């Protein structure tokens, strides 16, 4: 990851400590605007207790990417942040640092004309800032995870492949879009055409059907009643991965394109995102099993 940002910018960002859990805004030099975020920071006593029991173990940073109609506030409203705090306090999950970001309909990518470099903001400003503020969390690809839903699932697959800065990726109901983007409503299509080229060849670096999320440990999950047909798209994506010997795990189970599906599914896969099985000394691996559809992997 590039560290292309000034020391003065770091000092300014560090002047206001992050709250333990809640909403705040940070200023992005690259985007020339304030960016609302929500951050989950484990309680100090929880961190100390875990580190005492697991000396030398890295703690994870998780970048959480909301969907087109969601934002940082939904990370709190959905109960995910509260669940993390409860599970950490009980010792059921390792402490982890989570950040949910405002996407500005960016699709988590740099605009093709260079006018809104959102991917660069994430990788050159946001993550370095958090890792300086909270030493011991993240710092290497092996200690970073991605999680996203819908537009955020698309963004998570792209960031996993393009940055090589993460080792695990959970893509829920990923919006597997391609030019000319007719599979989405017109008001969503506007943001896509503002960000990406309509030329399929120029779009290839952002096409998950081609790069398959890179080489991270990958879970793709979707509700079988998804109103946008993303369950079938996810199954086709997994089939393409299987043809190309790209390991992943696919979970399809009852649910729609909404938080009634996303919240319990995120909770199910949190231990996997945080390497809980490895922490317990039983080796890495998922802790959830598919109810519908195959689990595809080596």
Automatic annotation (TrEMBL):
Gene3D superfamilies in the record: alpha/beta hydrolase (3.40.50.1820)
Keyword NADP annotated: no
Domain of life: Bacteria
Transmembrane stretches, start-end: none
Signal peptide: 1-20
GO molecular function: acyltransferase activity, transferring groups other than amino-acyl groups
Keywords: Signal
A Pfam family the protein falls into: Esterase
Protein name per Swiss-Prot or TrEMBL: Esterase
Gene source species: Candidatus Geothrix skivensis
């Amino acid at each position: 990851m590039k560290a292309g940002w000034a020391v003065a910018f770091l000092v300014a960002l560090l002047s206001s400590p992050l709250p333990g859990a809640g909403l705040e805004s940070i200023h992005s030099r690259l985007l020339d605007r304030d960016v609302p975020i929500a951050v989950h920071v484990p309680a100090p006593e929880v961190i100390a207790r875990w580190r005492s029991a697991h000396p030398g173990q890295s703690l994870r940073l998780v970048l959480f990417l909301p969907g087109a109609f969601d934002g940082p506030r939904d990370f709190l409203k959905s109960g995910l942040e509260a669940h993390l705090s409860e599970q950490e306090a009980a010792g059921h999950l390792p402490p982890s640092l989570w950040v949910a970001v405002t996407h500005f309909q960016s699709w988590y990518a740099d605009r093709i004309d260079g006018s809104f470099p959102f991917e660069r903001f994430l990788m050159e400003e946001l993550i370095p800032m958090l890792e300086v503020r909270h030493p011991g969390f993240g710092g290497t690809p092996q200690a970073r995870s991605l999680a996203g839903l819908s537009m955020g699932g698309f963004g998570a697959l792209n960031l996993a492949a393009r940055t090589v800065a993460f080792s695990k990726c959970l893509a829920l109901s990923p919006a597997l879009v391609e030019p000319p983007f007719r599979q989405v409503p017109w008001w969503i299509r506007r943001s896509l055409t503002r960000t990406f080229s309509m030329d399929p060849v120029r779009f290839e670096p952002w096409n998950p059907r081609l790069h398959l999320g890179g080489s991270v440990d990958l879970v793709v999950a979707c509700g079988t009643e998804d109103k946008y047909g993303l369950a079938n798209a996810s199954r086709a994506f997994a089939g393409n991965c299987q043809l190309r010997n790209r390991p992943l795990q696919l979970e399809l189970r009852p649910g729609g394109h909404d938080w009634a599906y996303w919240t319990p599914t995120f909770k199910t896969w949190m231990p996997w995102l945080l390497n809980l099985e490895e922490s317990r000394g039983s080796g890495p691996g998922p802790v959830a099993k598919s109810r519908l559809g195959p689990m595809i992997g080596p």
